[in-house]
Amino acid sequence: DKKVRDSYMTYEMRMKDIREESLAEGETKGEAKEKLRVAKLMLAKGCYSLQEIVELSGLSIDNIEKLKNDMHIEKQA
């Protein structure tokens, strides 16, 4: 039946789109986590300027400063 076949193909195409979107979202989240990990390591080392961390991690200066403050608060706790 053509109607059933068309419906099934539409469903399959939508499922493929959802899988691709999910994969792209997962990659983006993974990249963001890796940037944070690198920045945290650099801050913990204490031998990098904020500008160097921005350049090497790809994060914004605002994100680095917030991360630095958060890490400082964690050390005090």
Write the layout of secondary structure elements.
Elements: H1 2-45, H2 50-57, H3 61-76
Helix pairs in contact: 1-2, 1-3
Please give a structural write-up.
This protein has 77 residues and is mainly alpha-helical. It has one domain. Helix content is 88%, strand content 0%. The protein has 3 helices and no strands. The protein has helices at 2-45, 50-57, 61-76. Helix 1 (2-45) packs antiparallel against helix 2 and helix 1 (2-45) packs across helix 3 (61-76).
Radius of gyration: 21 Å
The number of helical runs is 3
What number of domains? Answer: 1
Strand percentage lies at: under 5%
**Sheet with most strands:** none
Count every beta strand, where a strand is a DSSP E run of 2 or more residues: 0
Low-pLDDT windows of residues:
none
One letter per element, helices H and strands E, the order comes to HHH
- How much is the average pLDDT? 93
Report the helical percentage.
over 70%
Q: Based on helices, strands and strand pairing, what is the structural class? A: mainly alpha
Shape: rod-shaped
The gist of it:
The protein is mostly helical and 77 residues long. The protein has helices at 2-45, 50-57, 61-76. The longest helix is centred in the first third of the chain and has 44 residues, at 2-45.
Main features:
77 residues; mainly alpha; 3 helices; rod-shaped
